[in-house]
Hints:
2 strands, about 75% helix, mainly alpha
Amino acid sequence: MVGGAGGPAWLAGLAAVIAGFALQAAALGLGRLVVIEPVLASGLLFALVLAARRDRRPLSRAEWAAALAVVGGLAVFLAVGQPTGGQRTASAAALGLAAAAAAGLTGLCAVLAGRFPGPRRALLFGVGGGVAAGATDALTKSVAVLAAGHLLAPFADARLYLLIAAGLLTFTIQQNGYRVAGLAAFIPAFAVIEPVSGSLAGLVIYHERLRAAGPGQVVVELAACAAAAWGIAHLAGLATRAGQMAGPRAWPRGDRSSPGVPAGR
């Protein structure tokens, strides 16, 4: 992988990572976290389709089932929940408190990970990394809105530096997770926890709302979330195994769902 640095494929991958981050920041700035976060996680669908095309094989029944669970779960959740309200930005104090809480939980996961071997360590890194990534996304939303108003405005705002700190924390945890011999535990946990923590930030910090007309509707929303979470975790596990069987080159360096250098959000 190091030997390929600077080559056409590496440069194309780097350009894709930068473009992906820019588009993600724009989406977070324009939309609600409770909508954008789950949709971003569905990007695993495209990774799976591309992997199948690369291997010149059709999608398996397990892959179709996971894909349908993600698409169906998200469709039902958005249709029934009907997200509304919310603020475009959150205060530096609220985001700082959220970032501190995320850092504390991530640190606890890292400490506990040091006491366990293999898969359990990877799982804890996945949980901690997902929490940190969710906080990073919440910060990205406000910074993106500030930058849209004036490109240099974020440099005079504490939220940009909170974003940098949260991004570095996410990057560090990801790298530790990728080095652990338990990617099948790390990546699914990360892929599920990030949209969950990011959506919670939207509900709590940005005051976004979901429709809850009665207990029956709440049950449907929770069931849809559970189906989507199962599908995301299953897709992440399938993508991990496919990448391991295909060898190191199967992973585009910089993809946040693969064991390379993450893009950082």
